[in-house]
Design a protein that fits this description.
Blueprint: E1 2-6, H1 11-22, E2 26-30, H2 40-50, E3 54-57, H3 64-69, H4 71-92, E4 95-101, H5 124-139, E5 143-148, E6 151-152, H6 165-176, E7 178-181, E8 186-187, E9 190-191, H7 192-203, E10 209-212, E11 219-220, H8 221-232, E12 237-240, E13 255-256, H9 261-265, H10 274-283
Parallel strand pairs: 1-2, 1-3, 3-4, 4-5, 5-10, 6-9, 7-12, 8-13
Antiparallel strand pairs: 8-11
Helix pairs in contact: 1-7, 2-4, 4-5, 8-10
Length: about 300
């Protein structure tokens, strides 16, 4: 299959390029230099030249604080961008796989969110990402909208200063010997390598629609850090951060756990526990896992 991956040099995009390539697909890598998703002529020009059978979009304005300060820009990228991709995908008769976020929920449910739960975003980032989902779902029938959570991978995430949570914890432990982490935010840490493999598998189906796609289980950020240090035998004093120690400029959901109900109902879920994925990442930090072949 001919696949166009947008945001190919990003944290998730780089693993998607590797996963699709290992699966035998012809992958066309698109970065910001080659396509501006908020500009319809740019999207049309780039994708009409490639003529892909599937378009995979990982590009977004991810920085939550920047989205809050520049909501119009965030809307152009996170909402109108996916709309532009959906229009061109429909015109090219290509499927569109679009990555969204757990931040479309407010975190008040207290139990894992399923695809049928009502979104209630707390921030401009969440609102614009939700708008992008609606544009995709309303514009082209051949779509996969994928909500995920707590991503980490071997490639840098520019929106987070280049370090994922794991690398940041290991760096701080080495430099300071003591690390404080919040224990009142519950998430599902998800490996980009595992998510990429799941997306390859999903791309081989015609089960279009909305999906939650995260590792199995959940933990607080404090529990995640504790597991990181335990697996790596890192000597560090891990403390629970005091209330208000890291004040957020923008509201974030305190409970951000997604249940992969749609994947499971279709027999397509391939995620392992977050602990297993973390162990793989830590054991193979310089390697790329070999995806299965799906036909």
């Amino acid at each position: 299959m001919k696949i166009a991956v947008i945001g190919a040099n990003g944290q998730l995009g780089s693993d998607l390029v590797a996963a699709f390539s290992a699966n035998g697909d012809a992958v066309c890598e698109l970065t910001h230099a080659g396509i501006e998703i908020s500009d319809l002529p740019s999207v049309s020009h780039a994708l009409e030249e490639i003529q892909p059978q599937m378009i995979v979009n990982t590009a977004a304005m991810h920085h939550v604080e920047n989205c809050e300060g520049e909501p119009e820009k965030a809307f152009h990228v996170n909402a109108l961008g996916p709309r532009n991709l959906a229009i061109v995908a429909r015109d090219l008769d290509a499927a569109l796989m679009h990555v969204s976020t757990d931040y479309v929920f407010d975190g008040s449910k207290g139990s894992p969110y399923i695809e049928q739960d009502n979104p209630q975003p707390l921030s401009a980032y969440g609102i614009t990402k939700l708008a992008g989902e609606h544009f995709v779902r309303a514009t082209t029938s051949r779509h996969f909208v994928i909500r995920t959570s707590g991503l980490y991978g071997k490639s840098p995430c520019r929106a987070k200063g280049g370090l994922n949570f794991i690398e940041l914890m290991l760096k701080l432990a080495k430099e300071r010997g003591e690390v404080s982490v919040v224990d009142d935010e519950v998430v599902t840490p998800t490996s980009t390598a595992e998510l990429a493999r799941q997306m390859v598998r999903l791309s081989r189906s015609d089960c279009y629609g909305l999906y939650h796609a995260t590792a199995e289980g959940s933990c607080s950020w404090h529990e995640f850090a504790r597991e990181i240090f335990a697996v790596t035998d890192t000597p560090v004093r891990l403390k629970v951060a005091a209330p208000g120690a890291f004040p957020a400029k923008v509201a974030r959901p305190k409970y951000s756990v997604l249940e992969n109900r749609a994947l499971k109902s279709r027999g397509l879920n391939s995620f392992r526990s977050w602990q297993d994925a973390l162990h793989e990442y830590l054991g193979n930090r310089l390697k790329t896992p070999s995806p299965q072949i799906y036909t």
